[in-house]
Design brief:
This protein has 145 residues and is an alpha+beta fold. 43% of the residues lie in helices and 35% in strands. Strand 4 (109-120) and strand 5 form a beta hairpin. The termini are far apart.
């Protein structure tokens, strides 16, 4: 009987932990989408960075300096030189990680991007991305989005 009670308590605790993890993933997903929309789609880089990024934000993109100020300066400079449009195609979240599948269009060149963000204490603290140009011809008709 004692063992059954412990088992039920463990299962209940695990269920609560899983529920909290799902809630965290959902709130992290919303936070990252809000950030991305403001910073990259609406191009309000500084306001978005100040609201959503930690000061010591870790950047893994080799073209953007690390830190919140590096993000602001890097993206603001890029946006002043390039006419670019982004649209979010998919969003996935698990625990503290959120991944966006994004379509980027610069002139007649389209790229597929996967951005991965790590969220800690309600702020984005780390970012990775991979970018792949959409070719004119593909070995299939599935598209990239």
């Amino acid at each position: 009987m004692k063992r059954q009670m412990m088992g039920l308590a463990t299962a209940a605790a695990f269920g609560l932990t899983a529920s909290f993890a799902q809630a965290d993933a959902a709130s992290n997903k919303e936070l990252v989408v809000d950030f991305y929309t403001q910073a990259l789609i609406e191009k309000d880089v500084k306001a978005a960075a100040m609201e959503y990024l930690t000061e010591d934000y870790i950047q893994h993109n080799p073209n953007v300096p690390t830190g919140r100020d590096g993000f602001i300066n890097g993206l603001s400079g890029w946006f002043s030189a390039v006419d670019v449009d982004f649209s979010i195609v998919r969003v996935m979240a698990e625990d503290d990680l959120v991944a966006l599948h994004v379509k980027q269009v610069i002139g007649d060149k389209t790229s597929a991007i996967v951005d991965i963000f790590r969220v800690e204490d309600g702020k984005i603290t780390e970012h990775w991305d991979v970018v792949q140009r959409v070719p004119a011809e593909m070995a299939h008709d599935n598209g990239m989005f």
